[in-house]
Each structure stands twice: as structure tokens, then as C-alpha cells.
Amino acid sequence: MELPKPPQKGHSRAPSNETSRKLVASPRRRTLGPLDLGDTRITHPLQAPPSATPTPTAASSGASPPPKLSTSPRPPPPAREFPHLLHPHLFHPLPNHDLPLPFRQSSAAQPAPNTPLPTLLAQGYFRAAAITCAALLPTLSPSNHTEIFNLWYIRLSCLCLIGATQTAYVEVKALEDLSAPAYWAEEPPAAPAARPQKRHLVPWELRLLAIRLQALSFSDWRRALVFYYELAREARVELRRAINRPTTAATTTATTATTTTNSSDQAQIKLWKARLKDLSIRVASALVEMGDLAAAARHLESLRAKGGDADAAEEDAKVRYMLSLLYIRIGNYSAAKAALPPAPPAPAEAQPQRDPLAHPTQTALYTDHILASLLRTALGHWEASITAWSTPPPPTAGPPQPAVLERQNLAVSLVYTGRLAQARDILEDLIEEGNAFFALTFNLCTVWELLTDGEATKERKREVAEKVVAGGGRREAGAGWFKM
Question: What's the whole-model pTM score?
Fold first, then answer.
């Protein structure tokens, strides 16, 4: 006789056969997948449920004809709206307490009230123009994207021109990612059977400026490189589209229409080629900002033009000048000399000895003279630098170049040789002649700091600001560059 088993304490696992007996068999509910969209039991929530009367099938009533595609034109896409770019809190105030006192007190340094924005830009009142843009943007319609982006570009550009780059870094974040789908729109196709094409709503110049400012704001130049290559891809697509665009649909059209179409296509081809070249230079600039000067030099070397025509030689000369400046910054002076265009072959008749770094073309002689003099300055050969900057530049094919740059660099070389009085006289003469830019005013104030001390230095700097205002340097009038 088998004794009963004592009850087990705690949890115990039941055998699988007992578990199967305990489970209640229930039918599996039918689930609908993406292939069941033709099921008649699926109805719209706002539609009435299907009747119980069975519908005739294709076998009993015959196959129904396929539905015809609609030939009506596609409705235009809804207008894009950008209300998030019109909030007044996006635009920071621009106080003038950081400007020198003469600029705040002079009536010539302040524009008249209610001056139109184009007049402010033409006369160089960039601070007032930036304030005007901030006042106009909240009054625009959110769908007027053309005027919105135009005022944004003027606002950010003026902030950079007046030295308020920190404010521009903050405000440009409102644009966010300009490659997002919200900034793209479909264009109606040129032909009825053609596919619609997408067009970016933001102007090209604003996209370039936003990429640079956002890279500076986030301290991430790799991000700028990515966006530059995205713009290059878009430029290649547009260039290919302009090249492959048919000129005329029929051969019997008017000659004027054909000429207009061809000239328009050629203008587009020239435009996108120029933008591609500009993007390649911006990539090199981004590499310099990242500190990878060697990669920037290799990139510029890859941009050297190949060919023997005049256009290729001119483009190659421009890249050589950029390479020379970059090698000077790196400190590789032998490579800077090698990057300059070579000297022309000596003619058979006797001619005066020329600089071995001179370029054969007349239009490049002036640039070559500047680079050769700058190379001597970078090498620290101050006497040779003074002689080079004192030598009049060679004549160019265009209008004569003012010697403002040469005289300012001559003054800098004189400072390094200890001739401060001569340097001061040269810089003051440039200011009194109406020349006013950041490097000139900065160098003159530095010379006054070396020559004077204490309150005398502040008084001399104040006199410099008064001379700039009296000279009518309106391009500097609204700028915050003179933080003396």
C-alpha cells in the first residue's frame, strides 16, 4: 500500500501535461496587416458599417475595370510659414555704451529718424540697420519668407560688421538646421509630364553666413564642413540641371526667345560654377579655423587649375596667392616663395632687372608686390620690409590702387625698428585723409600707448575717435570697432 505524499511547501512547478489541461482553448483573434487593406470589413470610422447582404464577387459579376488616374493638375502646396523667426525676444538690444563718446555725441555719426533701411546700408549705418531689421521682422506675415530671410541676412551681416559677433552667435541659433525639410518647397514642373523639383527657400548668402556663425557658436567646424559639402552637392545638381536644360522646345520659335533662353542658362551655369569655387575656398577656411593648416594647404593644392588658357591661368594665380598667405601663416617661407607664380622668361632685348617673385601678367603685378613685401615682413627683415613697402607698387590695368595698405604696413615695420615718431606721423596722416578701418585705428592707438602714459594716452585715443568722426568715416560711424 502506497503512503500519501506530504504536501509540499512553497511554490512548485506543475507538470507540463497538467498545465496544458488547465489552459482553456480559445480561438486566435484575426489581426490585420498591411496586405489586408482590401478587406471589406475594414471601414472608416465615419462610414456606415457594411450591410449583411453579400456583395457580388468578380467571378459572378465580371472583372471591374481598373480605376483611371486623375488627369487634373496637382493642387499647389501650402505656403510655408515661419512664425518662430518673428518673435521679438529673438533679437537682443544693441546698447551704445560701448562706443566712444565722440560717436555718441556727434550728429554725423547718428542717422536721421525713420531713415529707410536701404539708405542706412548705403551710408554705412550698420548698427541702425540692424536695429531697424529687428523692428521690422515682427511686423511681417509668417508666409512672407522672402522678406523674412532677407531681413535676417541683413541683421546678421550688420551684427558681424559692427563687431557684435557674440550677439550674432546667439541669434543665429533660431534658424536651427537650414537643411531641414521645413525650409524646402516644391516648384511646379516646367512641363506637365515632368517631375516637381524642390527649391530651398533660404537665400544662398544667408545659408553660408548661418553655417559659419553656427560653427563659431557651437565651436564645431566639423559641422560646418559637413554643411559645406551638402551645399556643394546641391550646387552640382543645379549645375548639371542648368547644363542639361533644353534650350528651345521647337525650332520655329523666335530668335529673341532662343537668345534669351540661352543667355539665361549660361548665367545659371556661371553662377553655380562660381558658387562651387567659393565653397571650395570656404572649406579651406574651415580647415584653417580647425587648426589643420596642413590639410588646408593640401586642399588648396588640389584646387590648382589645370590648362593653358587665360582663365585657367588666372584661377591658378589666385590659388597660388592663397597658398602663399597660408604658408606664411604656417611659417614655411620657402613653400610660400615656391607658391608664388614664377617669373616670366627673360626677353632677348635688355630690360631692367625684375623681382624674381613677380608674375608675368600685368593685373597680378600689384598682388605679387604685396605678397613679396609681406613675405619680407614675416621673415623679420625689417629694413628690407621698409624698402619694399616704401617702393611704389607697379601700375595695374585698372584704376590706380591707393597706397593706404602699403603706408600702414610701412608704419608697422617702422614700429619694429623703434622709429615710433615716423610711424605715428604716417598713421595720423592716413586718419586725417579720411581712411578709417580697424587695423589702422588699432595700430595708431598702440603707437600712442607706446609714446604716452596714463591720462595722456586716453586723451590721444579720444582725439583719434574725434578725427575719425570729423573725417566722415560713416562706415565706421555705427560700428562698435573703436573700443579704445
Answer: 0.72
